[in-house]
Amino acid sequence: MLVNGKPWRTIWAEDGGQAFGVIDQTRLPHLFETVTLRTLDEAAHAISAMIVRGAPLIGATAAWGMVLGMKEDPSDAGLENAYRVLLATRPTAVNLRWALDEVRAVLAPLPADARFEAAKAKAEAICDEDVALNEAIGENGLAIIRDLLPKAPKNRPFQILTHCNAGWLATVDWGTALAPIYKAFDAGIDLHVWVDETRPRNQGANLTAWELNSHGVPHTVLADNAGGHYMQHGMVDMVIVGSDRTTARGDVCNKIGTYLKALAAHDNGVPFYVGLPSPTIDWTLDDGVKEIPIEERSQDEVRRIWGKLDSGDFGWVTLTPQGSAAGNPGFDVTPARLVTGLITERGTCPATREGLAALFPEHARS
Predict the structure, then answer these.
(1) By three-state DSSP, how is residue 366 classified?
(2) Of 130, 157, 189, at which residue does a domain stop?
(3) Any known ligand binding at 27?
(4) Most buried residue, 93, 111, 113, 342, by most Cβ within 10 Å?
């Protein structure tokens, strides 16, 4: 995508693959800065500290982390150590494990002196594949938007609500939930996006709004609790969100607050779609509520907020009384019954085991 007229991906090789660069998403929207990662530990920190975030980008970063691990120690012990260190960074997004499994499967049969170059090639392939998958999601989601257009009021733009950031910053490029929006906007469809702020890390207000602003897409940032009100008053024609892990029967794990938006959409007859590439599907799980591990993040993410002060400086502001405890689950699970459809690179299907199996028969259980 474009930043100040220049095309960017969110992750790229540097120094012939001896290092890789990423956009530091903790500095957005006020500062656009990049970070060069040169060691396995730096790659792991970038994931755990959310310098990079979003399930597909976490997977791509983990793949490049394996490259750095092989640079440091390409032995069997080094391979297993790199896998273990990166897998421990964040528990919820299944793309992390998927990418690590993909790289390890390539490297394990090889002699140690061949592993670094093979890891680079596989990491580059994972990144390129992610771009292609997400662009296909964009095309398939565009078809849904076109189908819904005639049902929307004609006296205003087509209104889409999204939660968290599932744009190109969450992937290598294009995004998942935002890819259909970019495709529709570029096709000339008159649309407007309601952007949930997405407390406590504000990925909607900080990242989605920044993305849409950079691309020229009309949007408005909403307080997280406002979405249901807008749906009640007929001001939302469609909800599109991303996913960090989707089960084989169609339960969707996404950023905390997604479940409440799905309930509001269901109550008001608003179509609720999820954009996800197939590596986000965890074919080993059925019941998302019971089986998906939910990351519990630092209380300080709720208690404090980082931003631009009136002075023009940047800093942290404390929001809560001293001594108040804070709960901070990073994700929640939306049951499949609340999901209108899953938008994948192979097409759109119902959020059911049968729907997913029809698109991905190689994963269907006998």
Answers:
(1) coil
(2) 130
(3) no
(4) 93
In this structure, is residue 137 part of a structural domain?
no
Pair 185, 84 in one domain: no
CA neighbours closer than 13 Å in the CB half-sphere of residue 108:
9
Which residues of 209-271 form beta strands (DSSP E)?
Answer: 219-222, 238-241, 245-247, 252-255
Catalytic residues, by residue number, are 244
**Is position 268 annotated in a ligand binding site?**
no
CA distances from 159 to 150, 194, 270 (A): 13, 7, 11
What six digits make up the tokens of 324? 């108040």
Contact 46, 40 (CB under 8 A): no
Q: How confident is the model at residue 6 (pLDDT cuts 50, 70, 90)?
A: confident
The average pLDDT across 193-202 equals 97
264-307 tens-digit pLDDT: 999 999 999 999 999 999 999 999 999 999 999 999 999 999 99
Residue 100 sits in which domain range? 2-130
**What are 89-115's pLDDT values in tens digits?**
998 778 999 999 999 999 999 999 999
For residues 165 and 180, the answer to whether their CB atoms sit within 8 Å is no
- Residue 259 is given by DSSP the state H
Q: How far apart are CA 302 and CA 306, in angstroms?
A: 11
